[in-house]
Amino acid sequence: MAAEVYYQAIGTLQSHSYLDNFNHHQKHKSNLVRLVTRDFISGNGLSRRSSSSVQRNCAVIQSLAFQTSVVDPVLSPSRSNAGDNYKKSNEAALILIRHGESLWNEKNLFTGCVDVPLSKKGIDEAIEAGKRISSIPVDVIFTSALIRAQMTAMLAMTQHRHGKVPIILHNESERARSWSQVFSEDTTKQSIPVIAAWQLNERMYGELQGLNKQETADRYGKEQVHEWRRSYDIPPPNGESLEMCAQRAVAYFRDEIEPQLLAGKNVMISAHGNSLRSIIMYLDKLTSQEVISLELSTGIPMLYIFKEGRFIRRGSPIGPSEAGVYAYTRRLALYKQKLDDMFQ
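The line above is the sequence of phosphoglycerate mutase (2,3-diphosphoglycerate-dependent); the predicted structure tokens follow.
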């Protein structure tokens, strides 16, 4: 119950919708601040849709955002109109990064949805993650609403060879949208939109948040704490189970992120252990028993190729010169070659 109330409140503040093309808005500055209804934006725009499964559980306000791309402009489909309404790409890259170590990870505390920044080690991990993906194209970034995931994404992108600047979209209010507009086409072309969504937040740990993990095990017993942390459908007191976390994270991925991949956009997601485990469960078709044993290291990116409606797992890139990563697909190889030519 507490988890539901928490997410209803956060959903009101951290909402967004599909992105109208940013370049289009720069040419029509008088229309920069407006709400998109059900219209499909022509040209380079994107269709507006909402997650029915999320709407049933959360009061989420849908509002305007924007998009820019390092690849040829394509239409982004509504799932219900995916047939002829967009130019389907042969493949797209999907990068998943669990945030670097946080200050509460360092102190061995249950963090959950408490908004805690990265530790020094976490900052170094985020920068190293950026080096690993520095030659993989990124058109749009999704993060959770929590600062440690956003810091990881921003720090990682400082290492990217294309030099584009990630810009967090602010859709909390009409004023926030208005005041954060960019009025230079050239600057827009050198930017990457970053969408923060509470649905990608870490699992809400309820009454365990802020408690020391070892002291909690001493108090409740190791078996009980292990059950709270690693079972699929048993939540901690007044918190979320992994199953509950998966319901919101996977629904968001299917409704908001997967259409970007269908449209040929290369996506990076910077999020958390449990929200990413949930998404990987969906991508790799894992069972509830298989996912509970899945461990994700902080600051280690995972690469998937989305091709012909399938997600192909390619593991973690080792670095920008690793030939194997870029041999997976012709598109990644061409992108890397273009960067090599630019910086020779």
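Note on the example: Residues 242-262 form the longest helix (21 residues). The longest strand covers residues 91-98.
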